[in-house]
């Protein structure tokens, strides 16, 4: 292909294939020497810089804190890969589990939440040191007469022995010159060899470098999934604990990889060229999917860098509009968008940017219809829209579609209308007619703002699609209340006003993933399902009253009547469409369209009422707990030097009730007095520095009342949420940082001290851009994964296992397994293997799922907690009790940090820990799990029954048979719902009979022996029975041929709970 960036990406793909076969090439903890060439080719100035950049990348070996410094989510302290095998070989020799007893902060009832335990800080070895310094020399660039003699670069090296060398890069390679810090002398040093590889020369001048390089060659290699870079940046809200001392960058590139003379990429051309790749064979589709992913990843990285550059004021706007500045940087067009009063000012502007991205995602899958590469980035309180540069128009008739396109007729316009009609059908949008400003009637398949054009590259584009989705009539105050269902307005308070005018529904093809549930994606979906129910019901009612024969016209009448009843756009099939322009006050419809417009208004009112009266109550009932979203922080207008102080001040106001700020300059005076210096001149007061905790909470309550109609439930401060809703301040802090890109120092924070600020300016390490972008499909891998899920629902595990292995392979080909869907695929594959009795395979695959989840979703993401719990279950089933305990304790630590103890999944984890622990701690976790399960599910739920069953086993081991009988009777009552012949029911009956006999035996022995009998032999139930009970309970979910692997019983699944 002629595209430069795409060609580079294809080359990188080939290189990554080599890297996967030889992990030492990309493993930052391992190294390699640049292979010598038999006939080395001479360097050019460009290739010499590339070689130096490669060596620098090689020498920048990552330590345990490097990921945190860069704001990336690190791997946890749990050993992985080959190191895990060594760890397991050691843990198998442990005589008991007391050495690995849970710490106090992980025991039930503890309120301590230590952040220092979340991430590795000093437990892992430091990265190896090669050199003290390697950088470009101060004598660069080479003077003209030295360029004529072949000098490219001058490099300065300080070895571990403390010696300083200056190196010259030339066409033949690298050699030592005679320059010093004070004198420039480019002549070759005496007895200096010319080495084609820089690493060879470094080995020649530094024995320590040679030894370190040789040692690392023999180190075991980590799997590629642990060391390859993730496609997208996974933010870590916690940074290294000692960032100030670890900030030094030993190996500075100093412009090695800067290519200021190169032309900025044409991101649109790169994306469209990748989309135009052939799709005839599987191999071609995989190459296309990988190319699309790589282009989009490069685009997102550019957007992230562009946002930092623009917000930091390094780029001047290209227009003269201070209210809507636009910027060009790196082939990107970036703007904030105009704050239109029609759409609600600043809130409407932010909503328009978000909706534009979602609409571009919806249109991106339409073959033949193109959208520009688009992303939305939030950085320091500023939201920017970023797009690739649009191509020029093709001829004078480039604008082919839109309200302002004008009447025209051409083959290109007809083809564009065909594509838009296909898109409208896919998105359930109705074709409608509006009156243009010039009075002409214009048929549309989109919203009135959308424009379709033919680019200079010959492709059809659709732009300005932020109002693609229909309006939510609940927030259209001008809609007459009498057109709604009876008493709807008085009962619900709708319709009412909204802070901005872009209150739209999202229409998407609904895809319920086993790991996620999203309300906004299902609103219209469930309304359509509701209409389908009415449609089928009306047909059945009609047909049951008459005798219908083949070809009878009455059947057709029944279908037509049902279509009319539900508002179908067709009178012979069920087909629902929605008009995106209805309830738009600035849009006029011709009188000839009044019937259709009235029907669309009726449908949208019914959909809005259905949301309030049916869908949201059902959704809330489904959720056991609600989580509050953090407020949006704006840092616009804050000076960069005081940014960390502003952030820390805001967080203190948010988390500490009645927080009163220290007067500006007072803290500086105190520090100065401690250091023995004068206080100096006081700083001027800034608006943010005078904000108090009560003032901020009033603003939060005001915003909640305007947006969500929440008035009294927030109380007077965050302590009200803690007391009434069990909300953790630490959880709120974490969520706020992830939403805004803030990174805090890794240390323990205390929020109970009313006299001291819990977060200081030094605790705010960085603010990273948060980019929302288009998600590129992995077509064949997703199809295989969906097919596997269908087989699972039918109970065909062998076929599901094969399709899951195929999907895992395809994910690896496209994204090197570093993708959320790849994580879900591996997790499902491990579940199927576990059920099939392949414990070793389940454990191996699940370990990979844990690593993927940590790297692409985050070390403390809810999905990562799930993956750790499943790994613990599989390890325990395979006899690796020590590893199971580590995994489950890690999951509980993350769970307590993310949400707290008052959550149903905490009961799941405690049930698991009740199996792997011993002694009284086992009973402590089992009792806490029982308390939580009864609280959330009631005494007759299967989760509660399993807890009762496990507690009965533990009571038997303690000799308390009466309590064991009580718990087992409760368990049997619940298990009976599965059927009298169910294995779990039979197991419970047998166990109850056994402990009853044992209780009678013990009681008889005590009576015969009298008070002199102080000891009694207790028959401890074998652990195998416990595992059998777990597996039998899991088998209970195989009802009517449907094996719900997504509910791996109470002990090995969290898919029923969404954190």
From TrEMBL:
GO terms for biological process: intracellular distribution of mitochondria. Residues 73-91 have a biased composition (Polar residues). GO terms for cellular component: cytoplasm. The chain crosses the membrane at residues 524-550. GO terms for molecular function: mRNA binding. It comes from the Eukaryota. Residues 64-109, 664-689 are annotated as: Disordered. Keywords: Cytoplasm, Membrane, Transmembrane, Transmembrane helix. This is Clustered mitochondria protein homolog. The gene is si:ch211-166a6.5.
